[in-house]
Write a structure and sequence with these properties.
Elements: H1 3-35, H2 39-50, H3 54-69, H4 94-97, H5 103-108, H6 112-124, H7 131-137, H8 143-173, H9 178-192, H10 199-219, H11 226-238, H12 242-255, H13 260-272, H14 276-288, H15 295-304
């Protein structure tokens, strides 16, 4: 091929490439009258013009692959990038996470730097999920860490009070709403088991939980789940109201005779109250039952058999 012919071919290719880029730009101008986004077409047109042949082939192959492998079953209308509906997942900071020590160890060895770092890490997250860790930091000799922990506990307490008021307002408006009552009970159980309340406060709120469970039991007996009854018994034992706990022990045996959690709760109760006869009677009853026993209770049976 002569040099003149090579030049003609190159010019022909450049002209065709320029026409394709121009046509794509014009197509973009027409389309954007409806969509209103010309920037993409301008950038791709310039890319095709500056990269003859390669640019056109690259974009053509990309479009072809998109058409072949694109899943048309996806409902684009259901996809949103709204911050209100999408949780953004951040990669964990591995370097800082592996350097954290347990709260108990930081307090025990009086490591102020580690304790403050751990406490600040906890406070940056959802405090309500880290109440136990924050409560332990109250016992630190480090005044700054204790101050942070006390402030966090105050925030938790304020949120706790506000949430209780909201639940009470909902129950006053809908006193027969079983679902709201169950949510109220579950929230109280979760918060009262976090050990951030004083003895007097705990006693007050446990009796509040007792009243709500009793009310629900009278309205809809089956709505009081075994997990409600077991946690209520644990909390009543914690505040040393053994007689009230016995009442719910009897109800639990009547309502959930074949539940593993019922046996777990009863065995803990009779162990804590040092009632050996009832403890071993129910332990033997569990061994003779057809209930699937988990690892903890199996170990308990082995220890006391």
């Amino acid at each position: 091929m002569t040099p003149t012919l090579k030049l003609i071919v190159i010019l022909f290719i450049l002209i065709i490439n320029t026409l394709i880029a121009l046509m794509y730009f014009i197509h973009g101008c027409i389309v954007t009258k409806k969509e209103g986004s010309l920037c993409k077409y301008v950038i791709l047109s310039i890319f095709m013009f500056l990269c003859p042949v390669v640019g056109v082939l690259f974009l053509s192959l990309g479009t072809l692959c998109y058409r072949i492998f694109y899943d048309s079953s996806i409902d684009l209308a259901a996809i949103t990038f709204s911050k209100d509906r999408v949780d953004i997942l951040e990669h964990p900071d591995v370097e800082s996470e592996i350097n954290l020590v347990p709260m108990e160890e930081a307090i025990m060895i009086d490591d102020k730097e580690s304790l403050r770092q751990l406490l600040l890490t906890v406070l940056r997250g959802d405090i309500s999920k880290s109440i136990n860790a924050v409560t332990k930091a109250l016992n630190s000799a480090d005044s700054e860490a204790s101050h942070y922990a006390a402030s966090a506990i105050m925030d938790i307490m304020n949120e706790f009070q506000n949430t209780l008021q909201k639940f009470q307002a909902q129950l006053e408006a809908n006193p027969d709403d079983i679902e709201i009552t169950q949510m109220y009970i579950e929230y109280l159980i979760r918060m009262l088991s976090a050990n951030f309340l004083s003895a007097l406060e705990l006693k007050t709120y446990v009796y509040m939980l007792l009243h709500i469970c009793q009310s629900l039991y009278e309205k809809e007996k089956t709505a009081v789940k075994v997990v409600y009854e077991t946690n209520l018994v644990y909390l009543l034992v914690q505040i040393e109201d053994i007689e009230a706990a016995r009442l719910w022990i009897d109800r639990m045996q009547e309502d959930y005779p074949d539940e593993l959690e019922m046996y777990r709760c009863i065995l803990h109760f009779y162990y804590d109250t040092k009632d050996k006869d009832q403890f071993f009677a129910h332990l033997n009853q569990l061994k003779q039952s057809d209930i699937d026993i988990d690892k903890d209770l199996l170990e308990l049976i082995r220890v006391f058999s």
